[in-house]
Amino acid sequence: MAGTDVDVAVVGAGLAGLATAVDLTAANLTVVVFERGDRPGGRVATDRVDGFTLDRGFQVLNTSYPQVVRRLDLDALEPRSFSPGALVRYGHGLHRVADPRRSPGYLSSTLFSELLPWRSKVALAAYLAEVAVMPASRLREREETTAAEALRRRGLDGPPTERFLRPFLSGVLGEDGLETSSRFVDLVLRSFLRGRTVVPATGMSAIPEQLAARLPDGTVRYGTTVEQVGRGQVHHAGGTTRARAVVVATDPTGAGRLLPSMPVPAMRALTTCYHAAPVPPLAEPTLVLDAEERVVANSVVLTAAAPSYSPDERALVATSVLGPDRDGPPIREDVVRRRLAFLYGVPTDDWEHLRTVVVTHALPAATPPLGDLRRTVDLGDGMFVTGDHRDTPSIQGALASGTRTARAVLRSLA
To answer: For the domain 5-45+205-265+375-413, what is the CATH code?
Structure first.
């Protein structure tokens, strides 16, 4: 398509870029999407290793996300659900934290768990009930501070934070200092309380594949590296494409290279260790948290939710670890394995290490001030930028930014 004119050129076929392109083609604009890789999805990707389905980092889809409801055919994804709540390793046992509204069978074990004092349980329940029912628009207007400070003001510091909220949120936020915006944390907890946490039966890559399938044939040009963008032009290995509007939809680091004046947020790193276990260490698809040490952020038996992730009867265990830091080495697999033996309370010597996935740019940091959580996507002069770094660091944020960007492009071309 080099040298020919299109209405819109999109750089990057991640979720935000795909959402933008889907909306613009639906408005009868001619669109081309340049993608450096050989598949859609950006950071949402899946690999096959020895017959196992390994997502590039432990990722999940929340069914309460408004953009998921609007854009995705959930039934076609064949979603496989995880149990609401978590099991927390503290002291000599695993303690259950569950929402009694959704898991009434676990009411007694949650109420009488020794994980938290009664006063802490009441305070935590009140906070979670509040964010569950409050409209998202109101949560975005609440006073903003760090999550740690907001929890302290609510009397949730101490056991509620250290034994549950910090371990639970660390894997979601990519940090365990609770430096993230309190507004975003409220929205995160609201989504977990209102929706199901699922993975597609064939892996998380099914999500971008579904979006890409809605584009006209030939819209996405894979294996094309964009070298430079400017007003009305995209320069790539195949030449130059002229467009009435240019949308940069790469990850934040790539966007910063193409748009030098754009501030690039700090990025959180996450590592996922995948193991195949001859026998499932846990019979239920519930997140396991460590309230005593910070070696592991969380662990889950993926095949308890999605048996299709394994080629046989072996269980697939995914374990998330924060980092590595910018200059630090990845965590050693044997260190993770030893901690998993403690978390699950079973020997792990016969577990097979399938792969360690290090994602150095897993998600943008969402530290305050974020304001209403929406950053501008229209840079002027027919240039636009989209991605979860323009909204919230989540699938919802990526898709929502794509929606906003498409609307901004349509306004500019009207």
So the answer is: 3.50.50.60
